[in-house]
Amino acid sequence: MALRTEELTFSLGPQHPSTHGVFRAMVTIDGERVVHVDPVIGYLHRGTEKIAEWKTYPQIIPYTDRMDYLSAMLNNYCHVGAVEKLLGLEIPEHAEYIRIIVMELNRIASHLVWWGTFLLDLGAMSPFLYAFKDRQVILDLLEEISGARLTYSYMRIGGVKRDATQEWLRRVDDFMDEMVKNIQGYNNLVTGNEIFQSRVKNVGVYDEAFAKRWGLSGACLRCTGNSYDVRKSDPYSLYPKFDFEIPTRTSGDVWARYIIRIEEMLQSIRIVKQAIRNLPDGPFMGKAPRNIRPPKGEVYFHIESPRGDMGCYIVSDGSDHPYRWHWRAPEFANLAAFPAITEGVNIADMIAILGAIDIVLGGVDR
Question: Contact at 8 Å (CB) between 119 and 190?
């Protein structure tokens, strides 16, 4: 006689280590098989987009730090880049090189948090400690140049807050060499581990058509073979001057998303070293007006964040604050596909799938 089971609905989160923040998932299971997942978001909603409409353009910069708080430098740049595009400002090359250095450092730091916490979800404690040890060095470097920790507010409309010293650049360059060796250590510890591979291969599989239908980006899209990366597909800043590759895989599973982020760290190291080597002399601030009043109009500016395609949309009425300010958070779109990816999987695999999406709830909720 077949064993009859009854469906059970329970709440995962909002206070749970594997939800990576205050995220709640109402999960319906049949035995250990996931029947349905209903994401519940909004616990970190602070009305940032509406607040921005009451702030001057420079005053908005610190608010961008608090959204995707693991990549504040890139948030800063996305906002100031949109304003600069609206103003038609020309940014000194020296300032853009520094921007690229700090953004790619922040990308590595963000991926280190993801790597450590993702493996913690799967029961591995040591990788988390190694990841945070290396991230600590990057945070120290970013704190030194910006004067803040985690929420940097370093970018300025027209350039950056302060210049980089030769000593700071030397230490960044030295640490990039060290990080290459450390990532090889990560691969020796985790990537080649058969037990780990059995947990992530052929788990959470989807194809390119699915990814496009849900508006996925970042590693969540590139794991299907699509090489879309804003730095290459719609270039901004000085990225066309740099020699780097966009890692892709075709299996569309958690393993592919893992490998892509590991390889992205190596590509970011490659970019940082090129930027330090080719850094031109010049000012760290351009000739931006003291009172920022963009002409009437609208603008959309997007960049490649650690989580994917991040964009800022501004409608200007000619005043010193935006009439409309809207943020496209890639982690919000990526998380929307979570129920569709997890339907029918084992509940343990659901945790791996959520971790591989790499959500930051500050960006999801805003």
Answer: yes
